[in-house]
Design goal:
The chain is mostly helical and about 70 residues long. Helix content is about 65%, strand content about 0%. The protein is globular and about 30 Å long.
C-alpha cells in the first residue's frame, strides 16, 4: 500500500484526510496492525487508483508474512 501511495505522489496524511480517518488509523493500516473496513478499503482503492481486488490481495499477502502480534 505504501508503494502505491508513494508511486502516485501522494502523502499518507492527505490520503487519511480524504478518507476522513486519523493519521494514526491510516498508519496502522499501512503497518498491517489493523485493516480498513470494506467501505474504507473501497474508498482507499479509488483514491490511490488501484483495484479493490489488488489492494485486498496485497493486504492479505502482507498479513500472512507477519507473525501475529505478541509472538
Amino acid at each position: 500500500m505504501k508503494y502505491w501511495i508513494k508511486d502516485k505522489g501522494l502523502i499518507q496524511k492527505r490520503v487519511a484526510e480524504k478518507m476522513g480517518v486519523s493519521e494514526q488509523t491510516f498508519h496502522k493500516w499501512c503497518k498491517n496492525i489493523t485493516q480498513p473496513s470494506l467501505e474504507e478499503a473501497y474508498l482507499l482503492s479509488r483514491i490511490i487508483g488501484v483495484s479493490l481486488e489488488d489492494l485486498c490481495e496485497v493486504v492479505y499477502e502482507e498479513t500472512k508474512k507477519e507473525p501475529a502480534h505478541g509472538e
